[in-house]
Amino acid sequence: xxxxxxxxxxxxxxxxxxxxxxxxxxxxxxxxxxxxxxxxxxxxxxxxxxxxxxxxxxxxxxxxxxxxxxxxxxxxxxxxxxxxxxxxxxxxxxxxxxxxxxxxxxxxxxxxxxxxxxxxxxxxxxxxxxxxxxxxxxxxxxxxxxxxxxxxxxxxxxxxxxxxxxxxxxxxxxxxxxxxxxxxxxxxxxxxxxxxxxxxxxxxxxxxxxxxxxxxxxxxxxxxxxxxxxxxxxxxxxxxxxxxxxxxxxxxxxxxxxxxxxxxxxxxxxxxxxxxxxxxxxxxxxxxxxxxxxxxxxxxxxxxxxxxxxxxxxxxxxxxxxxxxxxxxxxxxxxxxxxxxxxxxxxxxxxxxxxxxxxxxxxxxxxxxxxxxxxxxxxxxxxxxxxxxxxxxxxxxxxxxxxxxxxxxxxxxxxxxxxxxxxxxxxxxxxxxxxxxxxxxxxxxxxxxxxxxxxxxxxxxxxxxxxxxxxxxxxxxxxxxxxxxxxxxxxxxxxxxxxxxxxxxxxxxxxxxxxxxxxxxxxxxxxxxxxxxxxxxxxxxxxxxxxxxxxxxxxxxxxxxxxxxxxxxxxxxxxxxxxxxxxxxxxxxxxxxxxxxxxxxxxxxxxxxxxxxxxxxxxxxxxxxxxxxxxxxxxxxxxxxxxxxxxxxxxxxxxxxxxxxxxxxxxxxxxxxxxxxxxxxxxxxxxxxxxxxxxxxxxxxxxxxxxxxxxxxxxxxxxxxxxxxxxxxxxxxxxxxxxxxxxxxxxxxxxxxxxxxxxxxxxxxxxxxxxxxxxxxxxxxxxxxxxxxxxxxxxxxxxxxxxxxxxxxxxxxxxxxxx
Length: 819
Description:
- The structure is a single chain.
- By secondary structure, the chain is α+β, with helices and mostly antiparallel strands.
- The protein folds into 5 domains: 24-68 and 104-152, membrane protein fhac (Ubiquitin-like (UB roll), Roll); 158-245, Ubiquitin-like (UB roll) (Roll), CATH 3.10.20.310; 250-334 and 399-403, membrane protein fhac (Ubiquitin-like (UB roll)), CATH 3.10.20; 408-557, no CATH class; 569-606 and 617-818, membrane protein fhac: a member of the omp85/tpsb transporter family (Porin).
- The protein contains 14 helices and 29 strands.
- The strands form 5 sheets. A 16-stranded antiparallel β-sheet has the order 12-13-14-15-16-17-18-19-20-23-24-25-26-27-28-29.
- α1 (2-23) packs across α3 and α3 (76-83) packs antiparallel against α4 (92-100).
- The chain is globular and about 95 Å long.
- 29% of the residues are buried.
- Mean pLDDT is 84; it is low at 1-11, 18-23, 352-369 and 457-462.
């Protein structure tokens, strides 16, 4: 049987080898007289400018065609193509040629002369008006060829002056006022991109002043290049710009259709309008209360149209979370005595405007500030200037068509967990949500969850099996609930969240722990990157209801475990601010989050002291201040390559009733998203080490009041959904005060750096977009609880020793990236 299997394996290897040999020639399918195109290079002749890197990338991006794709330097798709023949059906040849393979890219497909002109055009757009690009084909053997382009940039033109050719009309004055914000800077190199940016800038500025129909195409920038290597730029409004783009507009009627449906368009846009604070609401089904839109619509009747108010309104309506589609339409109003607030379709074409026949009078006079109000003399910008015509404001009707989500939803979620301390488990969650509770866009959520966890392998973490049950009720209002009116002008909806929750955590052979929580939060997003969360009220009551003799024996070995189930109140508040500007195309991006958590301050001033502590309902309450800061830097160092660095600082100061931070507020380290070379909650504090941690006599719950952690990780895309990582982690936790049972655990400014743990390793990540499955294999480099001169353990690494591997190779399996 074994011989038969060996024979089959040998045959498979021989077949694969034959296929590989027969296809290793990448030029097998190249037609006679042609060549396999292997790529192009660009040589720069002359002094390289400061922005040479971006110019070089721009040149390379414009070269066509692209070569055959490669994986790890090998053109595998081309090899697969060469394995097959022209298919006659749906067999193996069809898969090789049509599905898996890629035909050779040929030299005949490249057009060096045309590409050279494209590259010259790119250099001209960046100020090299006398640039020249030549090309030469370089053959390699009889079947391969590449192309070498040589760029001779010559002199680069810089901006000598920028002049706005405007007049004293309203739009001319508006454009002139923006001059000091110009993106065209004297002394900088000429750039077509900067000219486009300037047109967009002026366009945005005009949109803020009511010029709804103005577009960047109505602006012209002319360049005079006859000044010895410099450029004079002249910006003007095009003479043929139509009258409609030259007039500022004011808002007339603002109408909202909050029950719009494309399937039932006629009915959803008809009904009795309700006028509420400057807007008309047509909601025949009474789905929403008018107050819902008060803080979301920033356009007001009789006010000047502003693009920012338009955009904020659209984003606010979407961010309410009750509408899946939002579309706004604007139509000019001819008769302001009439109201057109019902019916209509967001997809209907705009009405044809009945404009007067323009009268052109060619004059070279400069218009003064006194303009006549006679629009019959003007149809274009030049006619308006020559005839000294002043334009009255036009009027716009705005209609917003809002398609709501279903009011109620039910979500179920099943999770699987695997922890580095040997526990595996599962958890089920079910959440019922009402997106429009009380018809006020208020979200009501009722959630239930339960999970079980059991231990595999050795029982080093102790505690056996466990389960948890919990419930939460949360109400989120789309505004700030405060004694005074507060509406921040941002595109993001401020929210107030009130929640009440209960959780039971039971370790069957140890204890039962109950936690009751009440919280009031204010949530708001100031910009696209900056978030705030302020909880002035956060109350937690921890109540143990059962302990076992087995747990009492654990307390004898580790008395600090008693704090993990201590009965107490946590009365306080917290504030979190987060900055996150991560985007796919950004080279450098940052994530910064800070949290301040305080407890017992006010209660400590009010409640009198008992025998030894201050109590509420005969239970002590925690008193502490806790500050944490996390900063990450993401650096895209190349295509498919990223270098990530992370710093975490945590500091807790217990006082009054508390000798240490409450267990749920303490810092932990180790595990799959921390220092991965050490198992979760087994490292520290400081240089302390409990020898019982490898037995069931100790729970892995080492915690501290102070934490320092640094991580660096390089991530490389390998192929498809597979990514490779190499990482180094360092850090530790410490206690604020010395604990006699834990020598070496106190933080000391002159010695803490000697207690830093260091570990590193490699990882494989399967990134399927929806979920990321991560495998990180790590080993310690520096162990802080060893004698001072023996803490670096590079010389003790021995992959061949099974005992060393069992103790020092830590496999972390997790969902998602560590940071």
